[in-house]
User: What shape does this take?
Amino acid sequence: MRPTIETIIKQQREFFSTHRTKDVGFRIEQLKRLKTAILAHENSINKALYQDLHKSAMETYTTEIGLCLAEITYLLRHLASWTRPKKVKEPSLLPLTESFVHNEPYGVVLIIAPWNYPFQLSIAPLIGAMAAGNCAILKPSELSSNTSQLIQEMIDDYFENDYVAVVQGGAEVAQQLLRHKLDYIFYTGGGAVGKIVMKAAAEHLTPLTLELGGKSPCVVDKEIDVEKTAHRITWGKFLNAGQTCIAPDYLMLHKSVKESLIDRIKKTIIDFYGEDAKQSKDYGRIINQRHFTRLSKYLGDGDVILGGETDSKGLYIAPTLMESVSTEAGIMQEEIFGPILPIIEYSEIGEAVEFINNRPKPLALYLFSNDRKIQKKVLRETSSGGVCINDTVVHFTSTELPYGGVGASGFGKYHGKASYELLSNKKGVMKQTVLSDLALRYPPYKSTTLELLRTALR
Assistant: This one.
């Protein structure tokens, strides 16, 4: 019988209180163990993700397994130096003090993961939690049931529940977990549930990260390489059948390249997936019937110029391009999260910037342009979680770039060092000398004390 949630939290608090997780040697050992576990289960991970989302082995490795292995390797290379206290300059009025920043773990971290990249978006936050010295409870999505079961079996085989535990179940299990006092919450998913998580965290004043989504725009200027642009947009949009939180959600094309780029994207879709993408071993499926029904309704929100074919039984929606879409239509009001790409025309870059700024801040923004002035304008005048110029999605793979949202797309950045810092409490420490003392700070104050202080602090 698996332990209850209450038992797991109690066990993890007790284990954390032994201070073993604070030892950098322990953290390194556990990260190496996790890497061994991933490598040992690679075939099972491939099978589970194919069952859940029809992912090919190539897509599974590049977007799930490989990213986790690279993250562990990067952290192992740097963790020993990051955990050392960092000395900082002492205040001018306290010249004999020592000041430094000490990173300490929070304690018990709850990770609530989504279904679209169910392995990577479960394990990547876990890697950061372990590197920072925390214990962790991982709640994978019940929608990607095969992958969730695989994760549980893998973690159970390699870790004790008092250090890392997996709890499976639906919304009721998540709600039960959130009723408990935890030390940090890391949630990836939609904004509606994100608000519920944030409200629950507020009850205990628990710090948290929300990795949400939104409508990530893809703006294409007239100064582009049409072929490369078509390839990169097509790949980023239809990866995982469009079920990617940073997929291009809508395409804004400069009128001078609209026709040529649309023609090239149509050709690229056929080059990638064949005349019938349903037969392609490299094209995914929609996660379940509810999302299939939701996406199918969007097909009536404009003119389908490519694709539009659906198969309810097979949870298949073809790669689809749409024009003549009203900005008031559902497809332009809600995150699509599927293989449907609306296309909007613009004449001047200022129009595109204004259109983006009149909507909630996106998780990602894509710009295809070789004009440096336009690149600078878009970077300066828009706000988003991240920006990728002349490509899509690939910025997510960098261990050197912080990844996360802003505003409605979430808050808190992770990946690489950002993961370690996010899941560590930066504790400021000052060590005062007893060899001397600053007498002017004590009352009764002389008339000249304030002026001396003003001069010193200018």
About this structure: The chain is about 40% helix and 15% strand. Residues 217-404 form a domain with the Aldehyde Dehydrogenase; Chain A, domain 2 fold (CATH 3.40.309.10). Residues 252 and 344 are 5 Å apart (CA to CA). The chain has two domains: 5-212+411-427, 217-404.
